[in-house]
Automatic annotation (TrEMBL):
PANTHER family: AMINOTRANSFERASE (PTHR42790), AROMATIC AMINO ACID AMINOTRANSFERASE DDB_G0272014 (PTHR42790:SF23). Residues 61-420 form the Aminotransferase class I/classII large domain. GO terms for molecular function: pyridoxal phosphate binding; transaminase activity. Transmembrane segments: none annotated. InterPro entries: Aminotransferase_I/II_large, Class-I_PLP-dep_aminotransf, PyrdxlP-dep_Trfase, PyrdxlP-dep_Trfase_major. This is Aminotransferase class I/classII large domain-containing protein. Keywords: Aminotransferase, Pyridoxal phosphate, Transferase. The keyword Ribonucleoprotein does not apply. Its cofactor is pyridoxal 5'-phosphate. It comes from Ciona savignyi (Pacific transparent sea squirt). The keyword ATP-binding does not apply.
Length: 428
């Protein structure tokens, strides 16, 4: 696979800055006297330890010796303790075919980032440039969509069903991309699609879950058209049942999948821990961008995650995933029942089996934008997101709304849905 086909010209020609090169040399050759890096004095740092108290009564401690590795600048890839854990997690849950060391650029590697959105923000300049046509789901996460547009690229939204991207539509759109994007040209010469961005589990906003058979079809098409897949999978561990659907990375025999994971839904969003994994040649270029952005992710947050993972172990991680999936499934069932009770004749929907969202289609209206009207929201004291916020094509109306059942108070869910019913009745 020619990895450089997927990279922007600026990325290919870019070189790490000299200070970073010297730091890397120093790291690999202990015993030298380091005067190139702008590290503050160890004696000037007031932190000597930390303790995290968990909801189950467990206390996780960062010792004084460990704190000495947390407070200075650290590796651009992330704390070694965390990247080692990430490798174990991927071996256990994904077993990437490229998780070997062939030294040809296709070998598997990982880098910690400041949450999944920051990871995307740093990988986009590597693989997306102005006048690119980028493949996305017809409804996709708003900030992702916005960031792609800011780069000067054009979105081409692929139709979906309850199992995610429809393979036949992906093939059709790839064969006809020029006519489908002609309205966006405005004198520009657009480039053929090279990148597909997909959220295959608990899709935001629709809640869809792509089964293994669907993923195999999509991967085969990606091989035929030589497409790079960005597998944005922050909801991977929120699936009902004990069996997790295999990932795109688990079937990636070519090295054409870059996978993005997150601890936001699995531990806590405020920690801002995510990571990217895939062929080393991409990870190296990713670190070149992240170094000029956040330098590296908070070491304290990284160490907190390490402590959780040490405490849980691989078996505990699997147990927690099952508990999360079952808890969210119960919340989803309650929301589903409550919506049927109050709004069964006003909306249609499919109950998801992963993620945190319900995707409701409002009947008797073409566009749901009225649900975001400030006066309506204040009047009825309830808040949902209209579908057009997620649409890849903003010129078309959308009758959908997204609501998050994950953070809804179970005791007030009936009242929340009753208010939503009143808002919709008021709007249509």
């Amino acid at each position: 696979l020619n990895f450089f086909r997927f990279m922007t010209p600026n990325t290919i020609s870019d070189e790490p800055y000299i200070t970073r090169k010297l730091m890397i040399i120093a790291e690999k050759n202990p015993g030298g006297i380091e005067m190139s890096a702008g590290q503050p004095s160890e004696n000037s740092i007031p932190l000597v330890g930390a303790t995290f108290r968990c909801s189950d009564g467990t206390q996780l401690e960062i010792t004084e010796e460990e704190m000495k590795t947390v407070t200075p600048y650290q590796s651009k890839y992330g704390l070694p303790q965390l990247t080692s854990w990430i490798q174990r997690i991927h071996k256990e849950f994904h077993s990437p075919p490229k998780m070997d060391w062939r030294k040809d650029g296709s070998e598997w590697d990982v880098c910690v980032g400041t949450g999944a959105m920051s990871v995307l923000d740093c990988i986009f300049p590597v693989v997306i440039q102005r006048d690119d046509v980028v493949l996305v789901e017809e409804y996709c996460y708003g900030p992702t969509k916005k960031r792609i547009k800011q780069s000067g690229a054009v979105l081409l939204g692929i139709p979906m069903d309850g199992d995610g991207i429809i393979p036949e539509k992906l093939r059709e759109y790839l064969a006809n991309w020029q006519s489908l994007t002609s309205a966006f040209e405005n004198g520009r010469k657009l480039r053929a699609p090279r990148v597909l961005i997909t959220v295959p589990v608990g899709h935001n906003p629709t809640g869809s879950l792509s089964p293994l058979c669907r993923k195999k079809e999509i991967y085969k098409i990606a091989q035929e058209y030589n497409i790079l897949i960005l597998e944005d999978d922050p909801y991977y561990f929120i699936q009902s049942g004990s069996r997790l659907v295999p990932s795109y990375q688990s079937m990636d025999v070519d090295g054409r999948v870059l996978r993005i994971d997150s601890m936001s839904k699995f531990v806590a969003p405020g920690l801002r821990i995510g990571w990217i994994s895939g062929p080393k040649v991409f990870i190296e270029k990713f670190t070149d961008v992240s170094l000029t952005s956040v330098t590296h992710t908070s070491n304290l947050s990284q160490m907190a995650v390490v402590k959780f993972l040490d405490h849980w172990g691989l078996g505990g991680i699997r147990d927690r995933a099952e508990r999360l999936g079952n808890d969210y499934n119960k919340r989803c069932l309650l929301a589903d029942t409550t919506i049927r009770k109050h709004m069964g004749d006003m909306v249609t929907w499919t109950r998801p089996c992963s993620g945190m969202f319900l995707w409701l289609k409002i009947l008797n209206t073409e566009d749901s934008m009225f649900t975001a009207d400030p006066e309506f929201c204040k009047k009825h004291a309830v808040y949902v997101v209209p579908g057009r916020e997620f649409a890849s094509d903003l010129s078309k109306p959308s009758p959908y709304i997204r609501l998050c059942f994950a953070n809804m108070n179970i005791d007030t869910m009936d009242e929340a849905i009753r208010r939503l019913k009143n808002l919709i009745q008021d709007g249509i």
